[in-house]
């Protein structure tokens, strides 16, 4: 690091890199007001760090402050902030601990974490008031993570000279947790007006994903949704089957989703193959020779299992990044600057981490809060060139599709008035942990889940690619293509056509695996009649769903309406639980509707 040469510098050099239009506008607004507190809400990948450090350099040059303190969520981000500050001539110490009292000589400040501040708030208060200090609260919504953190931040920096708050997602899942140093105003809360007005955060400058997309600051995102039929045995010993996209009730949807994410099923390897196919295309034809992908897992056990699946399906070992690994930060840095194709992680790359070459994300986690979704998708939208696109592969479940459809929606931190618990609000919580029944009782068990392409979600609109009216020449197949070359309908058509090819490729690779951890997808000689019947039913279900999509496209009606009419014409349980005979009858009925 070149910091040592500048350790005694008084006036840092502002960055020679030209500022983006939004960064310049935000700086002008700040300098016009010269406020004590300033909140910037900018979409992940927009360049909040550059804005903050440019402002810090200007304030230091004008001697309006003499110290800069950055508070961020993780230890890895401490290093990232210190490196970024070094590039603009600000020397920040990323290793200062609570055991050391004063700020080290030869630096202009330091980088700490919210957890460290909560550990000794009075120590940080003394540092922030010893001289005029600019406190930069990165991802300030973390100061709303429980009363203890919020109180500690207020105690530590309540008397600092200047405070700059940064966030890409100023909202929480618990509405009663106020974020310190954020301005709230009364606002009518959507819902029953009789409940009164709630509080809504107000940013001093806002730069959303929609604006960033128009400025080519971020990549356009295409969401590729994959459905499938899941089978599991509940705690009562009953075998239940349901489709991810037709689960009906929330509890069934949760169980189907959980089964799909099980490493022993076929949903995960199928989506891994689709993800790998996309990375290969980006590297060979998409102008991104270093393109990479991220897989988000729910827990460390799943992450390790997914890493094994990646190796089997792709033939290459991924980077496995776990939070309790002391080498996690080095692995992130190695992946960011290296050539590895895929990294599997739990939450280490969900927020703030800069991996510009990552352009593909596979959502294999049960988390679905708006905060986590926006931060995770933000890891693959940072644009380096105007032709780049981002692709997110995800389960075709209602909560995730809703978040994807509202990607461009501007959000504030809303604190609604107290009211009775809303059952629908539970959709924002993580899936419940795996059941731990007492010894001797039957346990919930995932049995099997297949995967098939459902649709592409782009700009809030779903495209199935099943209408048969889209033709793309092989030489024009820019798979999940660059906007302007392929329409969303063509993209969906290509994904649907490649789906069966991927299925065959996975089946062969899994068959070659001798570990026994993944089931072989071809029929076994000793398989009983019930097993063969289920495979016949699975294929019929896929065919019924394809035909439903075609009928829906032809008649401009929602898929759910077509399914309802189909069940009236051919009575019986939902397709996910229907017998082979009922499925065959429904298939014939659908054919007459085309």
Automatic annotation (TrEMBL):
Helicase ATP-binding domain span: 29-188
InterPro entries, alphabetized: AAA+_ATPase (IPR003593), Helicase/UvrB_N (IPR006935), Helicase_ATP-bd (IPR014001), Helicase_Restrict-Modif_Enz (IPR050742), P-loop_NTPase (IPR027417)
Region (Disordered): 413-432, 559-580
Keywords carried by this UniProt record: ATP-binding, Helicase, Hydrolase, Nucleotide-binding
GO CC aspect terms: cytosol
Entry coiled-coil feature ranges: none
PROSITE patterns: HELICASE_ATP_BIND_1
SMART domains in the record: AAA, DEXDc
One term of GO molecular function: helicase activity
Domain of life: Bacteria
Gene3D superfamilies referenced in this protein's UniProt entry, alphabetically: P-loop containing nucleotide triphosphate hydrolases
Family matches, as PANTHER family: HELICASE ATP-BINDING DOMAIN-CONTAINING PROTEIN, TYPE I RESTRICTION ENZYME ECOKI R PROTEIN
Protein name: Superfamily II DNA or RNA helicase
Taxonomic source organism: Geodermatophilus telluris
Lineage per the UniProt record: Bacteria, Bacillati, Actinomycetota, Actinomycetes, Geodermatophilales
């Amino acid at each position: 690091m070149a910091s040592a040469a500048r350790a005694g510098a008084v006036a840092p050099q502002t960055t020679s890199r030209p500022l983006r239009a939004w960064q310049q506008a935000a700086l002008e607004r700040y300098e016009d007001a010269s406020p004590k507190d300033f909140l910037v809400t900018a979409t992940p990948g927009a360049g909040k760090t550059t804005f903050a450090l440019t402002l810090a350099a200007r304030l230091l040059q004008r001697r309006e402050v003499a110290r800069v303190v950055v508070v961020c969520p993780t230890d890895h981000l401490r290093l990232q902030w210190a490196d970024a500050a070094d590039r603009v001539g600000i020397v920040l110490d990323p290793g200062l601990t609570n055991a050391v009292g004063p700020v080290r000589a030869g630096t202009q400040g330091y980088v700490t974490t919210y957890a460290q501040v909560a550990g000794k708030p009075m120590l940080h208060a003394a540092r922030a008031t010893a001289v005029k200090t600019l406190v930069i609260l990165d991802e300030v919504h973390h100061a709303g993570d429980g009363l203890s953190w919020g109180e500690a931040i207020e105690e530590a920096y309540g008397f600092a000279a200047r405070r700059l708050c940064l966030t890409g997602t100023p909202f929480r899942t618990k509405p009663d947790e106020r974020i310190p140093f954020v301005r709230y105003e009364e606002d009518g809360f959507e819902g029953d007006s009789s409940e009164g007005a709630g509080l809504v955060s107000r940013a001093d400058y806002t730069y959303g994903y929609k604006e960033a997309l128009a400025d080519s600051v971020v990549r356009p995102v295409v969401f590729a949704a994959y459905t499938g039929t899941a089978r599991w045995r509940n705690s009562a010993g009953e075998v239940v089957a349901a489709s991810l996209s037709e689960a009906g009730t929330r509890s069934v949807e949760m169980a189907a989703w959980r089964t799909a994410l099980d490493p022993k099923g076929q949903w995960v390897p199928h989506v891994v193959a689709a993800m790998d196919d996309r990375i290969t295309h980006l590297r060979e034809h998409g102008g991104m020779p270093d393109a990479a992908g991220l897989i988000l897992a729910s827990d460390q056990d799943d992450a390790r299992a997914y890493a094994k699946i990646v190796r089997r399906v792709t033939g290459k070992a991924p980077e496995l990044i776990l939070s309790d690994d002391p080498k996690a930060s080095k692995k992130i840095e190695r992946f960011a600057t290296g050539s590895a194709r895929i990294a599997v992680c739990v939450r280490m790359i969900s927020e703030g981490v800069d991996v510009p070459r990552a352009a593909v994300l596979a959502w294999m986690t049960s988390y679905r809060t708006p905060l986590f979704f926006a931060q995770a998708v933000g890891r693959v939208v940072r644009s380096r060139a105007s032709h780049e696109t981002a692709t997110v592969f995800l389960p075709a479940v209602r909560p995730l599709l809703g978040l994807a459809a509202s990607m461009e929606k501007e959000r504030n931190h809303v604190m609604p008035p107290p009211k009775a618990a809303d059952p629908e609000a539970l959709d924002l919580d993580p899936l419940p942990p795996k059941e731990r029944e007492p010894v001797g009782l039957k346990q919930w068990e995932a049995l099997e889940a297949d995967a098939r392409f459902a649709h592409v979600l782009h700009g809030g609109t779903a495209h199935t690619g099943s209408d048969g009216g889209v033709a793309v020449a092989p030489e024009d197949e820019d798979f999940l293509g660059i906007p302007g070359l392929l329409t969303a309908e063509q993209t969906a058509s290509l994904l649907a056509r490649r789906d069966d090819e991927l299925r065959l490729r996975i089946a062969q690779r899994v068959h070659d695996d001798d570990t026994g951890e993944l089931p072989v997808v071809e029929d076994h000689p000793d398989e009983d009649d019930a097993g063969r019947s289920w495979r016949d039913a699975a294929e019929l279900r896929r065919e019924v769903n394809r035909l439903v999509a075609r009928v829906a496209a032809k008649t401009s009606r929602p898929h759910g309406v077509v399914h309802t009419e189909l069940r009236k014409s051919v009575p019986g349980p939902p397709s996910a639980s229907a017998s082979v005979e009922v499925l065959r009858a429904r298939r014939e009925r659908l054919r007459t509707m085309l």
